[in-house]
Amino acid sequence: MKNIAIVGGGIVGLCSAYYLNKAGHHITIFDDGNLDDTCSIGNAGMVVPSHIIPLASPGMIAKGFRWMFNSKSPFYVKPRLNGDLIKWGMKFYTHANKQHVEKSIPVLKDISVLSKSLYQQLATENQFDFGYQERGLMMLYQNSETEKEEIEAAHLSNKHGVEAQILSLAEIQKLEPEVKVSAKGGVYFPGDAHLIPQLLVKNLIQYLRQQGVIIKSQSRVDDFVVNGNVVERVRVSNDLISFDEVVIATGAWSGVFCSKLGIDLPMQSGKGYSFTLNDMKKNIRVPSILIEGRVAVTPMGNSLRFGGTMEIIGTDRSISMNRVKGIVETIPAFYPEMKVEVPAPQHIWSGLRPCSPDGLPYIGRSTKFNNVIIATGHSMMGLSLGPATGKLVSEIINERPLSMKLDALNPERFN
Ligand SMILES: Cc1cc2nc3c(=O)[nH]c(=O)nc-3n(C[C@H](O)[C@H](O)[C@H](O)COP(=O)(O)OP(=O)(O)OC[C@H]3O[C@@H](n4cnc5c(N)ncnc54)[C@H](O)[C@@H]3O)c2cc1C
pLDDT for 156-186, tens place per residue? Predict the structure, then answer.
């Protein structure tokens, strides 16, 4: 049995604790907040084995430039003379090609399939509820250019064994009996699922505490005591605490955090927003992405959450009302009978996605330190990939055969 520190209490830290605790280790999670406002709380709750194409893909650069000059667009990079951003951007640029996509697809598919099967286990073991539903995911589009791209993506998915069905509006409407949909068409991924992230996090925390996991909120890990290639202690406020292993699951802050250990982990945060409508009389059934606006729509019980936007502007979580307006203005084109007002700022949530430049997570043991494991960089898929990441972290620490190959996810792949 080992004494393990997990730094970061988002979904990745919590899932790592879940599997490490099951394996009999003694776990302490440190989080600098209260674990109730991480990126893992207000996200769109989608579990997406359909997302086999990484963010760094052909076409993203051109689209990104087009969106840059529209204050309501779903994507923005704040131009600034920041060395980390420039290096990250260069790496993103060199990976946004067909070869990288082809290489990444099997990796993303393996980890997504593993993660979904673990969510199924969590849901059926009935230890805690998190509103898990398997109703698939719909990609809805309005124009011919998007239709062409989505149909190509659907063919690619089917080629790689991820089922994608191209649907007419009438077929979409059949799947959505309560809410009128307007779209040129859509692609339906029946293998996707969704859940209520804030319920998952709350109940997982409660379950972990019952199992003896120590969760320390308002506890920022700000330094380490290093001896050769071992991190002997972590510093939290004025306390220096010894651990056998340290898991770094610090989300968007992981680049800065790893730099304290001299580990180069290219990372930018991708800010997104969400807001939730409650007491929906008529709700959508199938989580959907309104492609032209890049808006994610997820039913959560009788609530409905809208999420979107990717702003690469540092770790500032303030709200840009123009971007939120962009999300709201997308809605009527797809759901013409749904009346949605721009929410007041206090009802808007923002979160920072931890984005690696090649669109793949970082999961693995550091080569610089024998007892440091890095688990982050999941970008738009951290909720989806949380359980698989946690399981892989526990397999690494337990020195068990891995559920999948981790070469492509090596945290030091950019060194
Ligand atoms: C609008 C939006 C919609 C999204 N929708 C989806 C979706 O539908 N499906 C999906 O899979 N993903 C989605 N995501 C992405 C997903 O939410 C993230 O990938 C995921 O939450 C990242 O989890 P994490 O545990 O790595 O980081 P976080 O949840 O950010 O947790 C990291 C924690 O570490 C803490 N920390 C940092 N530094 C320190 C330190 N030095 N000491 C102690 N604690 C520290 C932070 O404060 C934070 O609490 C969405 C994101 C956004 C913004």
Answer: 999 999 999 999 999 999 999 999 999 999 9
DSSP 8-class letter at 67:
H
Q: In what order do the strands lie in the sheet with 239-242?
A: 221-227, 230-236, 239-242
At 312 the three-state DSSP class reads strand
- Classify residue 369 as exposed, middle or buried by CB count within 10 Å of its CB (0-12, 13-18, 19+): buried
**Residue 75: per-residue pLDDT:** 82
Q: Is the model's pLDDT at 189 over the cut of 80?
A: yes
Which residues, judged by CB distance below 6 Å to any ligand atom, belong to the binding site of ligand 1?
A: 7-13, 30-33, 38-40, 43-46, 220-221, 249-253, 257, 272-274, 296, 307, 351, 353-354, 376, 378-384
**Ordered DSSP codes for 30-44:** E-SS-SSSSTTTSS-
Residue nearest to atom 14 of ligand 1 (CA): 380
Nearest CA to ligand 1 atom 26: 251
- Look up the pTM and report it: 0.97
Q: How far apart are CA 28 and CA 6, in angstroms?
A: 6
CA-closest candidate to residue 200, choices 325, 298, 88: 298
Per residue in 217-230, pLDDT tens? 999 999 999 999 99
Most ligand 1 atoms within 8 A of CB, residue of 15, 28, 217, 253 to mutate? 253
